[in-house]
């Protein structure tokens, strides 16, 4: 009596062979196909690539069918956004819960809140990231800048830079460092106004981050501060364009070297306003740039001497 194997070979998505194309075109070796690519077992030649996407198909744009995927991972949360939140008075279908179930859910919510943080460091991380999100929201930064600031705070905690410094100062310094790394013309005073600590502590924390982490912060030019200061002073477009030309000309001649960029940009706006017939006061320009009127006059004299 003829016999055959009990288990027959069937189709396998991960490892499969094809009789019509099971030979390597180079060495006539055996070719196998997995979920990623088709490879020759003898010489290692990659004959074909056929990566299978095991994620959602996204063929339907119905909101009800896309709820199963959940929120993406984010660096703005201490747990990367993987934790869940227990509801309060309704179930998944929107129905009201009974009194017994509400009490049970309240106990579950309490226990989840107690076990949310595994250590003191994780609790500090959650507090710091919350402060970073708050400052970024007040300053109306993009999500990319916010996430970069959160990652910078994580790096500071991993390097043990929070020891001896307040969490709020490191959080504000992380936001300012993300601004500097992305080339945003934001003053340190803008970040300090949104933070809950003094300017000296934020400046000290940023200096520590810049030194220990080696931030790729590029020097800011006076021309980068022209749009921000002009918006604060509410000057017309002709004065703004003239001030930018003055700032760019001073940068090319080296007149703006070694000075505070925001102060020199304010002096350019002050000089451009006088040339265009709009008399901006030195006190108003100095207040916007967070400098003194004496600094504005000094930079104005430099502009009149070196810039035509």
Beta-sheet strand percentage?
Answer: under 5%
User: Uncertain segments of ≥5 residues (pLDDT<50)?
Assistant: 9-20
Task: Summarize the main sheet.
Answer: 3 strands, antiparallel
- Overall pLDDT, averaged? 79
Q: Helix and strand string, N-terminal first? A: EEEHHHHHHHHHHH
Helix content: 40-55%
Q: How many DSSP E strands?
A: 3
What Rg, in angstroms, do the CA atoms define?
31 Å
CATH topological fold name of the domain at 120-213: Cyclin A, domain 1
Widest sheet: strand order? Answer: 1-2-3
Give the helix tally. 11
**What structural class do you assign from the helix and strand content?**
mainly alpha
Relevant CATH superfamily of the domain at 120-213: Cyclin-like
Which CATH first-tier class of the domain at 120-213 would you pick? Mainly Alpha
What distance separates the N and C termini?
108 Å
Shape, please? extended
CATH architecture of the domain at 120-213: Orthogonal Bundle
Describe this structure in words.
The chain has 308 residues and is mainly alpha-helical. Among the domains are: 19-49, no CATH class; 120-213, Cyclin A, domain 1; 222-306, Cyclin-like (Cyclin A, domain 1, Orthogonal Bundle), CATH 1.10.472.10. 50% of the residues lie in helices and 4% in strands. The chain is built from eleven helices and three strands, in the order E-E-E-H-H-H-H-H-H-H-H-H-H-H. The chain has helices at residues 99-114, 120-138, 143-158, 167-181, 188-194, 199-213, 222-233, 237-253, 261-275, 282-289, 293-306; strands at 31-33, 37-40, 46-49. The chain has a three-stranded antiparallel beta sheet, with no helix packed on it. Helix 2 runs antiparallel to helix 3. The longest helix is centred in the middle third of the chain and has 19 residues, at 120-138. It is extended and about 80 Å long. The termini are far apart.
